[in-house]
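Hello support,

Our group uses your service weekly, and this is the first time we've seen a run hang past the timeout. The protein is MotA/TolQ/ExbB proton channel family protein. I'm not sure whether the cause is the sequence or the server load. Input pasted verbatim:
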Amino acid sequence: MRKLIALFMLAGIMFVPVFANAQEAAADTAAQEEMAPVVEEPAASPTIIDDEIIEEEQSFHQVVKEKFIEGDPLFMTPVLICLILGLAVALERIITLNLSTTNTKKLLAKVEDALSSGGVEAAKDVTKNTKGPVASIFTQGLMRYSEGIEMVEKSIVAYGSVEMGRLEKGLVWISLFISLAPMLGFMGTVIGMIGAFDSIEAAGDISPSLVANGIKIALLTTVAGLIVAIILQLFYNYCVAKIDSLVNDMEDASITLVDILVKHKLTGK
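Update from on-call engineer: The timeout came from a worker crash unrelated to the input. Re-ran successfully.
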């Protein structure tokens, strides 16, 4: 017990100078703060934030609608009609041409097998049950088989021209709208410029505000006509390329059919 008390007394003796020095240091610090002049920090200048106007992004449909109205519906409506009618004809042609596509190799194999097994009548049943211009040409050629190979060739050539005309049906209308749309746009351009010059003449002064509306109408109608022509031209070129492909298939398949018929006649099957 005595040892414990002695240890406490020794610890107190050791830490008393430390506490005394700490108190003196704190007192000196407080005195220095009182004696030092108080320097006021400048108040932070208020930050000025510019008001930003955040506009909602307009959709493509809204932009087109605004430009249509700004370009004057009187001039923009005929251009829009050309686009609608041209697209309608082009889509109809694309669907028809795709449905007219036939696997000629497969059809020729079926016709040859039918000639070998069932004769000309069996081959006619195969071609009649197959859709497309190639099958129709084959049917016409097989119907003239009894008249000789020369009549078969003439029949194929004649009916091939008919089928080609059917495939090209409607392309003239797409071509018309391709030519008509830019013309209508240019007409709006000319009328808009005439209106701008009339405004200048009436005011007797050249001011941007006077001619801006007329020039804007002129430019918008021109752009609209050119866009319509470009869109329809793409569809027109696709249709022409598809027709060329079908015509080439018809010609190649017709030559092969004649060779098959000659072979069938020579073998006497």
